[in-house]
Amino acid sequence: MIDLAHIRRVVGDAHGTVALSDATCRIVRGEFVAILGASGSGKTTLLSLLGLLDHPTSGTYLFDGQDVESLSEEQRNDLRGSRIGFVFQNSYLIAEDSVAENVALGLRVRGVPREERSRLVDEVLGHVGLAGFQDRVAGELSGGEKQRVALARALVGGPDVVMADEPTGALDSDSTHRLVELLRDVNLGGTTIVVVTHDPIVAEAADRVIEIVDGVVASGESSSSAMDPAAGQRAAAIRVERRTKLWQEVIDAAMTPLARPLRAALVMLAYILGVAALVGAVGLTQSTTAQIVYRLTEAGSNEIRVTTPSTADWGYSLDFANIDAEVATISALEGVDTAVAVRTFAPQSNLISRVRVSALEATGFSGRIFVTDASYLRAYGLRAVSGNVVNLTNDWNGPVVAVGSRAAEKLGVTSVVPGVSIWVNGISVDVIAVLAPTGDVLADDAVYFSRACLPMLPGPVDSYLLVLTGKGYAEPLARALPLALSPENPGSIHTSTVAQLANLQQGINSDLTSLLGVIGWVILALSTLAAGTTMYLSVQQRAPEIALRRAMGADRASIFRLFTYEGVAVGVTGGIVGQIIGIAIAWIVANANSWPLSLGLGTGLLGLAVGFVAGAVASMLPAGIAARQDPALILRTI
Predict the structure, then answer these.
(1) Residue 317's pLDDT is what?
(2) Is the distance from CB of 616 to CB of 564 less than 8 angstroms?
(3) Per-residue pLDDT tens for 220-278?
(4) How far apart are CA 501 and CA 222, in angstroms?
(5) So what's the pLDDT on residue 11?
(6) What residues have CB less than 8 Å from 615, skipping those under 6 apart?
(7) Which residues of 355-383 are buried (b: 16+ CB within 10 A; e: fewer)?
(8) For residues 153 and 101, what is the distance between their CA atoms, to the nearest angstrom?
(9) Element (H, E) at 211
(10) Could you give the C-alpha distances from 181 to 92, 142, 147, 176, 197, in angstroms and in order?
């Protein structure tokens, strides 16, 4: 039994608009009641109040003797979901789903097990004349068939009351008569029917008509001949488990993207691009770092750099006795292949050109500048295509230069013949060799001067003794050299080996990770924002579905979970695909450059983890907005 005493509902308090001012009436069990009134009189507002989708501003509403305003939100949801069914003017079927899935929506919201759902759906479809329609796509049905599916959805849980808002408004006369017959048949089975309508066919079929004029119930008091109070209590004994309900929410969330593949694909594409960029950046960072360390190791596994007090003084005089003595001492040690003095200079401090020019006319040589001897060139496999590198170490202590292949092109030196020279800070220096290309840009774009050129070269950068050793000798020799060169003061001798250079791996990895990682994270953030925007727009499009779920007993938390689960499902799927693409990008780039592909376990799980977090973050706001949707307002405005 339903009792309304002086129910008042104000819509839009800021404007003081009154939807209902006095809707006092009684509806007893088993009645078929039609509510009539002009547009805007408050019929739909009254139905929302009766169906517990809205709250009255004032007054009393008793449902089966229970004051509904004393119920908690969870109790209202349970009461609405188990004892009230809804049918609307627009059937509000989910067009992409099957008939069976649409009918079972309320059962899924309540967590009814699959086998029981299937049985109840088959029974109710047979009752409304749609047996065998279970697998039909809802969007392909006629208008009358859609409304029968909507009625089946309202009846499937065995409610005590079916509330219908203009259910025949979009139907032709034949479909209207068929639906009215179904409503009457349901009513004869003991279910209370409350219909808001303009249709005289529906009004004539009702036991009683309640008329609303300007928000006030003008006529239609209940007759005293009410049915047996127990007659309407025929709700099906449905077994509901909370665990099943939560699991069903997960299934619904996972299946929703499949029903809307285009929208899901757009959201997923955003995650794929973001995760692929991030995983690719991380993968390339690891591979690049591994390659850099490999090259350092390969190039310098037998190399030691030694600095001594003599190397610091070298170049400020032409007395090479100390340097030569140290080179001789090192060369005598077991495992040493080459020992040679090297000094480098800043190109911006030195004017080097093919012909003599002034400082204002010169464009400047930008390559590397070395002072060393022939043993350095031989040690690194630098050979001459014209001239002879041996002459870099000469008995007459003359200023000469060997020119790398790229440096020779820049300076216009094509071959070595008597009289070919370059000018260094206004001094002519004979070219004794043009070197063959090595493929190493730094080695090819360099000039190598003899030690006699030291006085004419300002701007020294580095000065050291280069020691090349046999395999496995670098580390022990690096420890032995300080004592061999200066037993009285070994602390004045400093050595560095590739083992120390390898310690740069952590710094290199950190720098590259920071650079590429920032790019990847920015792309991921933009992708997550795009996905969240798309999901927000989908909330607006799915407002009828949200209202339906709320009408069938879903609480706000259930709606929030549903959209969050959906966002996480799409995010994880996009993360997995993006991870595969990101790894593929890293592999292609590494393979094209002959780099070792170095991907740790963390990289393998990165896409999954990031997809999960991004999906949850992107869906959080849309899910919250969906959960706060007012079902009564939705039904009044769509």
Answers:
(1) 64
(2) yes
(3) 555 444 444 444 444 444 555 566 667 777 777 777 776 677 777 878 888 888 788 77
(4) 95
(5) 64
(6) 271, 531, 567, 568, 569, 570, 571, 572, 574, 575
(7) eeeeeeeeeebebbbbbbbbbbbebeebe
(8) 10
(9) strand 208-213
(10) 21, 18, 13, 9, 15
For the chain, the C-alpha Rg in angstroms (whole number) is 44
Report field, pTM of the whole predicted structure over 0.85: no
Integer CA distances (angstroms), 100 to 86, 465, 554, 620, in order: 17, 85, 19, 30
- Class of residue 226 by CB neighbours under 10 A (exposed 0-12, middle 13-18, buried 19+): middle
Model pLDDT for residues 429-473, shown as the tens digit of each residue: 999 999 999 988 888 999 999 999 998 999 899 999 999 998 878
Give exposure, 501-523, as e/b (b: 16+ Cβ within 10 Å). Answer: bbeeeeebbeebbeebeeebeeb
Between these two residues, 286 and 336, which has the higher pLDDT value? 336
Per DSSP, the three-state class of 97 is coil
User: What whole-number percentage of the chain has pLDDT above 90?
Assistant: 24
Take residue 128 and report the two structure tokens written for it. 């409304």
Q: Which is nearest to 442 in space by CA: 376, 393, 498, 369?
A: 369
Distance CA 201, CA 197 (A): 9
User: Predicted confidence band at 583 (pLDDT cuts at 50, 70, 90)?
Assistant: confident
**Conformation bin of residue 371: beta by default, left when phi > 0, alpha when psi is -120 to 50:** beta
Pairing relationship of beta strands 192-196 and 161-165 according to DSSP bridges: parallel
Weakest-pLDDT range from 8-17, 250-259, 276-285, 546-555: 8-17
152 touches 103 (CB < 8 A): yes
- Higher-confidence residue of 547 and 407: namely 407
Residue 517 sits at the vertex; the CA angle it makes with 512 and 523, to the nearest 5 degrees, is 145
Residue range 307-349, pLDDT digits in tens: 999 888 776 666 788 899 999 999 999 999 999 999 999 988 8
CA torsion 301-303-309-315 (nearest 10°) is -140
Collapsed DSSP state (helix, strand, coil) of residue 214 = coil
Evaluate whether 275 touches 499 at the Cβ level (below 8 Å): no
The pLDDT mean for the chain works out to 82
Strand partners, 401: 431, 449
User: Beta-carbon neighbour count of residue 490 at 10 Å?
Assistant: 13
Give the Cα separation of 477 and 330 in Å (integer).
9
Apex 48 CA angle, 44 and 54, nearest 5: 135
The two tokens of residue 109 are: 């919201």
Residue type, 535: M
Rounded to whole angstroms, the Cα distance separating 477 from 469 reads 8
Sort residue 553 into left (φ over 0), alpha (ψ -120 to 50) or beta.
left
The conformation of residue 577, written as its DSSP 8-state character, comes to H
Distance CA 253, CA 567 (A): 8
Average pLDDT over residues 168-192: 87
What is the per-residue pLDDT across 485-518, written as a single tens digit (0 to 9) for each?
A: 999 999 999 998 755 554 555 555 566 666 666 7
Least Cα distance to 379 among 332, 458, 443, 334 occurs for: 443
Kindly report the backbone phi and psi dihedral angles of residue 435, in degrees, each rounded to the nearest multiple of 5, phi listed first. -85, 150
